[in-house]
Design goal:
single chain, globular, 315 residues, 12 helices, mainly alpha
Length: 315
């Protein structure tokens, strides 16, 4: 692309190519323009404490300056090179967001149902024992004996419980559909993440969604992206004292949380993970430090698995 006044345009930076700037980014990519995604925190951090205020013009200048001086900015749509968004990844994003919303609605409905049950008379309340799953609660509520209820307040409570239960049943059905669709989409990507112990289809979908094209990272860069790269935090090491590292609070916190869940599962089910953890503890590391070592190791496993999936099959 070439501008009559400014000359050749090497690249264009857009803040939020996955949101409001998506349509513009798609058009520019279709015109073979290199588009970089400028994170919102880059522009706010650069001007913090300078009392310059905020406006569309100031933001445009900050985005342009960041695009010009920062060659490490990610390409649009989390790609490793200028290219259009991945259709399968977009479908994963839609189903993943839908499932996240459904889980929030489920928690809210269960809380409302429990509050309504707590206000019922004792002879009705004792008919609904504590259950571990939402399905079990729905079934126990359906078996309530309400033949002798005459109080209008209790009747209204029962009606509201029935209404919330119907909504909860519908939410659970939609959630099951979303989970099945996510599993099918993960299979379509050809990902082998689900082979790793502790990674179900829905976890693999979240990892693929947050990572994008893994080829845009090195192995160490992916560890920084997941917040598992070690940060040295010791001095005067000597003898048998281990080198200390402090908690890395940077990186993608969703991926970091997913790695923590995988680590917890592997400590129960994967002997190699347990040996790695116990070995770190025996060398003098605390349990939290041993967990960070395991998560760093798992970050490498995820990277290598996803990177192998991007390579063409051997002839």
């Amino acid at each position: 692309m070439r501008d009559a006044a400014l000359g050749a345009i090497e690249r264009i930076g857009i803040e939020g190519t996955g949101g409001l700037g998506r349509a513009l980014a798609e058009y520019l990519v279709s015109e073979h323009v290199e588009v970089r995604d400028v994170p919102p925190h880059k522009t706010s951090l650069r001007q913090r404490g300078r009392h310059e205020g905020k406006s569309d013009l100031l933001d445009a200048h900050r985005i342009a300056a960041e695009t010009q001086r920062n060659d490490a900015l990610a390409y649009a749509f989390k790609q490793s090179s200028p290219s259009a968004p991945d259709a399968v990844r977009d479908q994963i994003s839609l189903w993943h967001n839908a499932r996240t919303s459904l889980r929030k609605i489920r928690v809210q409905l269960i809380g409302e149902i429990d509050a309504l049950i707590a206000g019922l008379p004792e002879h009705l309340r004792t008919q609904v024992p504590e259950r571990n799953t939402a399905r079990a609660r729905i079934n126990s509520i359906a078996e309530l004996d309400t033949a002798d209820v005459t109080d209008p307040i209790v009747t209204l409570r029962l009606q509201l419980i029935e209404h919330r239960t119907t909504m909860l049943r519908d939410v659970l059905t939609q959630d099951k559909t979303a989970e099945a669709e996510l599993a099918a989409l993960v299979t379509r990507t050809g990902s082998h993440l689900t082979v790793v112990c502790g990674i179900a289809a829905r976890a693999a979908a979240e990892i693929l969604l947050e990572t994008g094209d893994v080829r845009r990272f090195t192995e160490a860069g992916f560890a920084r992206f997941t917040g598992t790269a070690p940060i040295p935090a010791s001095s005067g090491e000597g003898g048998k004292q281990p080198v200390r590292h402090r908690l890395n609070r940077g990186g993608n916190r969703r991926l970091n949380a997913a790695l923590h869940r995988i680590a917890m599962i592997q400590l129960r089910c994967e002997p190699r993970a347990r040996r790695l953890y116990d070995s770190a503890v025996s060398r003098g590391h605390t349990r939290r430090e041993a967990m960070r070592i395991l998560k760093r190791h798992l970050s490498n496993i995820l990277y290598r698995t996803m990177f192998r999936d991007t390579q063409p099959p051997p002839a």
